[in-house]
Design brief:
about 60 residues
Length: about 60
């Protein structure tokens, strides 16, 4: 996983947590849902990068 993508995923997750917490505190369902969505996007970015890394490892194993 590249450093910039990893940082971007962590930032998305953090922003999502803040939005979700603010939404709950203000009883704003829309903001809460937006926060959850942003966290899910960060999780998906993590998963995508991990899959790419795993695919590279498999590819490199067959090159040997």
């Amino acid at each position: 996983m590249s450093g910039s993508e990893k940082a971007r995923a962590k930032a998305e997750k953090a922003r999502g947590k803040v939005k979700e917490g603010a939404g709950r505190a203000m009883d704003d369902e829309s903001l809460t849902a937006e926060g959850r969505t942003e966290q899910a996007q960060g999780d998906m970015r993590d998963a995508k990068e991990k899959a790419k890394g795993g695919a590279r490892k498999v590819k490199d194993a067959f090159k040997r």
